[in-house]
## 1
Amino acid sequence: MTSVSSKKCNKEEYSFVYGDEAVSYEVVRKPAVEGLSHQKSQRKIAIKVHPSCEVVVIAPEDTEREDIHKAMMKRAKWIYDALKEFRGHLEHVQPKQYVSGEMQFYLGRRYVLKVVEDADALPSVKMTRGKLLVTLTRFNDGKTSMVRTLVSRWYKARAERIFHERLSELVPHATWVEGIPSFRVLPMTKQWGSCSAKGSLMLNPHLIKAPKECIDYVILHELCHIAEHNHSEKFWRLLTSVMPNWKEVKSRLDGLAELYLNE
């Protein structure tokens, strides 16, 4: 493994070679935190691999280049593996055709879509043996549209039930909320949820595809907006008080957003 560097457009960028691939990364310098010793501040180097496959190193402004290089080499395999995983996600994000063999998601698990024809059955969707089984009375030119509609309705019905269960479970932890807030399940292209000025929640049905911990994060995030209407420091402190690991959960959800929102 070797390292090369480049500084362009006032951005501090470097790269290292792992196996047969050059991995580029940007270094963002931050002022040392007051109250921390110089030695402790020097050691605090954070490495982030984003779902977009960008690698960013956050380091105190006086950190030596060699210290950053050592940190990258120490975590080179982890960085490479994370990039490989995120690239795999991006490669498989293609418009859904709603045909047998496609992948669907529910509560963080993968299910294979299977579409069957049964002249004696009513159109339906059900989960069975690792599959999401869609039954149509007959196949015709409107098959794709019918499967899409049935699957969307199935997700929305599941979302309404599970979101209500999670909301009931989480509200007691949000002591600033009186009673269970009303909520609607409504598709959104770029948001998982929102909170109105009157404290009513709106949740994206695609969220039902995510693990329960991610669902809880979105619900708690919106419940915090009932007390704090913007993303102030007070808002983030409140969210941390009810979900200390929210950053990790958010990162996990962000990494899978393209898969879950794809339809």
## 2
Amino acid sequence: MKLTDFSFDLPQNLIAQYPPEQRGQSRLMVLDRAQRSRSHHRMTDLPSLLEPGDLLVFNNSKVRKARIYGIGAGGSRVEFLLLKRRDHQTWTVMAQRTKRRRFGTRYAFADELEAEITGEEGELRLLRFDRPIDDAWLDRHGHIPLPPYIRRDDTPADSDRYQTVYAAVPGSAAAPTAGLHFTEEILARLTSRGIESAFVTLHVGLGTFLPVRSETIEDHRMHEENYSIDEETAAKIEKAKAEKRRVIAVGTTGVRTLESAWDSAAGELRRGEGATSIFIYPGYTFKLADALFTNFHTPESTLLMLVSAFAGRDFILDSYREAAETGYRFFSYGDAMLIV
């Protein structure tokens, strides 16, 4: 398939620059794959749209303040995005104007911290600090890593709104944004209706948001992302599958975790830590996820390819066109979609 098969036109004014005034107030489009039908709701309707016995699987990864700024030898301010800790002092990073960030270049950061480029990994760099940095340092000096289509600096409000209410395990360089729609009240209403919840952890990195640059999508290779699944979650999912109850993934990261860890032959989910570079696009046969709660994704992205695999490319693109015509908000801070 061609990359252009996943293009669509989107007016710039529909790209949400801020979250809704109140969390949980977004619009919700529901896609029925069997009927090839669409209906329009609000996020607050979700508990009534699901069935008792459904199991929602959330990604509880927490976003780090992973965007930091260093000063180079000439006084220039350079942006780095911390992707993965390699050891106590070294990180894999995405660097502004990558080709200029050469081996041996040094940068000064807050608190008299210094770092040096010590290696190159394609488009990425290894940045070694002269002493360890932790999440406490990042909370003081880092910035929320808002995606580039949000054309503004982060604000104190983003520290809350670009984070799910159930975030628990620090490690992501971007939010698992489908979960941003859920409030404590909505979660409580889901529970009271007999809808179960379970939590996996996948730390969002380049595998999720790096653009596809190959004209033929089959040539694209996903970067590896780390995940973990505990015993309680694995047991809940296995029980739901055995009882033929729906497993509903909240977000594309949840789908990728479940599909990577599911052993179809044994009917079991692998416990513990793992890594995935799974690339899901049309033609993929889903093994575990029965429904998907997600956002509206960027053109030509691996996320759009995944939902196209789940619901059909033409159906998804038709739904996106209708969403644009009726004023839905798109991308991380935008509205939501439930595919059943």
## 3
Amino acid sequence: MHLLYCDESGTTADPNQKHSVLAGVSMFERQSYWLSSRLDTIAERFNPGDPNSLELHGNAMLAGRNFWRRFPLKQRSEAIKEALSAFNESHISNKLFACIIRKEAVSPNNPVQFAFEQLCSRFDHYLMRLHKNGDTQRGIIIFDKSTYEKTIQNLATDFRTIGHTWGVVRNLAEVPLFLDSKASRLIQLADLVAYSIFRKYEKNDDQYFDIISNRIDSEGGVIHGLFESL
């Protein structure tokens, strides 16, 4: 089973933000423990007394909000980079999928719904490529709990039955699951990945994205895992 942990970055309703990002990190199920453990060590360094209560959240870490305000910017930034590096250094089969939406380009449609169709179909095609190469695996998409939970589940059901713009989803084992990000280091990793991509497109700051850019799903020099609606 391949797990795609997803999160969004950018506030859909904020007129001051031009972009919305939906991104996910895909991994074979046995890779999840190793990556979670790497992220646990980062949290433990900042809060050794209660590391499980500390959430690795890109916006809060970089801005120094709440718990993170007690640490200097350099330390907070390096922690983000260390978490992203853990993903970059993980097994070669772990992939990155991302959709960057310029909100003007899809208005009046909801950019998150638009991005989910792209992300879902690209993950499905990745699993199909694995199947054609003799590695038959199903996949499941795991989101942070959000106001879009019902909408995304309905869309996923439609994609498996009626189909999406490019066909019918065939390789997902179930509709998306939704977890509290505080309970999942890998949802937190997806947040950091989405935030790093948002920083690149919204703030022209690519110091975080550059760490993970080579993990975008591709084959034969063709990039499949990145979609830009700009």
## 4
Amino acid sequence: MKRSFALGILVAALFAAPVFANQPDFPHISTTGYGEIEATPDMAEFSVRVVQSQMDADQAKQAVDAVVDKFLTGLMSKGIEKKDIQSSNLYLSPQYHYPEKGKPELVGYRASRTVTLQVMDLDNLNSYLDLALDSGINQVDNIQLKVKDQGQYQEAARMAAIKDAQSKAASLAKGFDQKLGKVWRIEYRQPMNQPVVMRNMAMDSKVESNSYQDSVITIRDRVDVTYQIGK
């Protein structure tokens, strides 16, 4: 029984060792700094979809392709570059009616394609959406408002997070009558910044809203810092 007990302690110690291996063996303060920068969107990306249902699969495909081709031709005429356009392959699926009794009945085919456009000039967003409507597009999946120079704003948010961590550490050290020493460890995990998104807009009327022009994008960052402290 004694040997088993001793072996249990040894095993527990072996598994616990890595947990404490990264812990500082000196007095320290750990802080987390947060930074936020607000930016006005100057570009956008939107995805539109055309959906058609026909009795014949080939007819459904042709109807969808005709709408997409018209939309792409219109975009090209407005000077949109091919690199800013992504057009998905055709998605075709049979549609069934399920009666209470009996086998499912084929009632037609549903075809769809999606076009994603990068809009470098936000002032043109509404005209591109109107063009989609005129071409026969019947669904907007989402509109994402973005900024062109994301890295510049991210760097500013990161610097704000660093200053926040430094300020907190200095305040804590002063409050506990300690001297703030050198940085021992820095841990950085950049948060995922989400663009402003507007979803599921109906394509049954002209797009007249300019509310997106008043939107603000908040770009965030954070940093975890451990400082040495001493008297």
